[in-house]
Amino acid sequence: MALWTFACVFASVLYVEPARAWTLTIAAGSRAIFLQVGNGANNANLGTINLVSVTVPAAVVGSGAAQVMTTNSTQANSFFDGFNVCNPPAQLYIGGYFREPATTAAVATVQLNAPANLLSGTDTIPFNRISWTSTANGNAFGDIPAGTFAGGTQFLVNIASNRWLENCHIFSYANSAVVPAGTFTGRVVYTMTAP
Amino acid sequence: MLTKQPQKQRRQRSHGLSVTALLGWLCASLLITNAFAGNAFRVDDSASQPIAAHSQLRWKSAAPRGAEAYEAEASTRVNIKLNTQPWIGQTGRIYMALPPLANARGQLRAAWTTQGRLQSGSLVSGGRGLVYQGKITAAMLEDIMNVKIAVDGRLISISENLQFYFEIELY
Fold this sequence. Notes:
The complex is a heterodimer of chains A (195) and B (171). Chain A is 7% helix and 38% strand. Chain A is mainly beta.
């Protein structure tokens, strides 16, 4: 019995599983959020700030006839696949995505922040006189929905984990009150955050 | 009384032999199972070395959209050195294999190209892919593999250690 035991152990020692030397450790893909408003490029961090404007003819100032605004954006195509999604200069492109190496319930939130008023010196126009509609070529539904600036931070849309949204916004000035002559300006900042 | 003792000793001896034989049989079976299961032999590739043993998955498409929305890739180059000394003169097929992913559900695909000594091919985790078939004529099979990993990047949320190995089947 001792002999067999020895033989068994000896034989087991003789059989050694060959070493595995060829290994590769792969790390998870990176998390990312990306938001583009107006002119931009895929995953590029550009300083471009587009202008949305309207010149109200003197004869109709304050008439209540809404004035469709135009942009200086030239962004017609989706930055992702080149699809002609918007029709500038009437439409302002807005799109983004939330990428993570998992499928979770987390969402990326797109918000905007607008001042209370457009300013021309000391003259003001409430920002809430500007609103927008949302559409896109091939997708008329406003995934990034229509709204009206309210002054302050406003929620726009949540983008789910590993999802993408894009739309085109068309801005309109309500022209509901007579205001002093002048060039009224204000900056809207769009942000995207993820947990 | 004098005649009983040898009988007892014989019984013990006989009993001891049966246990020994059984152990021996188990031992031999175990060895055979370990070493020669399915006529596949593990090939010593301990001399193989990847140029980079770590690689971060890169999203094939930055944005999660389109047919490749979730596909992520990694790649490396490996100096493959297979010790085929035990099978010189024999004919067989050598496969590269990869166990199932340890930390993720789903499968990973590995595709490789070579410089010609071994075959280009592909596999999915939990499976294997052919790298050589024919007569073993040298003690060492060497080649350089460019290996590309492709996987649904949503599946890999923590690092995954891919332990490739090689096995040979003789025919």
